[in-house]
């Protein structure tokens, strides 16, 4: 199923890119805008061009190329199809969720502290189980899919640790030990927030709350989540 989803997404992106290219060939105004953008892009890379001027040309190139792509009918249709797919994926995952799992533990003496075992994944599922590595602040991006982070298997350092998650569509579930102080800041276009057995509908809102023991707890975790379409559930163990 995972390979089938990946193949479908790759084929969809290829078809959108080919469609945009063909549409530009038959619409001279879009082709002119794209060509101007490419010219500015190449001139920004020339030797001897001051950095400030190069950045300006690069910005102008990005604007022209972006406008030429956004004005194509193919891009608009692709955007609608992608939105429908995201909503369908979100609904189907609520029925039978498959979770991306991240577990953290204390560092072993023979481990290289620079090793990392958390990878960003835009589509599909990933499971990282019983991996030993040094605790560090978590900063991940996910596209379409569910995420579960279990902080119960790690000894957090004294002070405040940070968990930052950005997601397009899917459910985020956080398992947090009861003795940790929690500062939660959740932003979503549409979804639900469930914290301490209370559920709240989130519609283009940003919600910030603190646990009762936040001020006195020696170990704290600051959780910052941004979701376009999805739910957040915080479970205190």
Automatic annotation (TrEMBL):
The keyword Calcium does not apply. The chain crosses the membrane at residues 7-24, 30-46, 58-91. GO terms for cellular component: membrane. Residues 122-234 form the Cell wall-active antibiotics response LiaF-like C-terminal domain. It comes from the Bacteria. Keywords: Membrane, Transmembrane, Transmembrane helix. InterPro entries: Cell_wall_LiaF (IPR016975), LiaF-like_C (IPR024425), LiaF_C (IPR047793). NCBIfam families: LiaF_C_term. This is YvqF protein. The lineage of its organism: Bacteria, Bacillati, Bacillota, Bacilli, Bacillales.
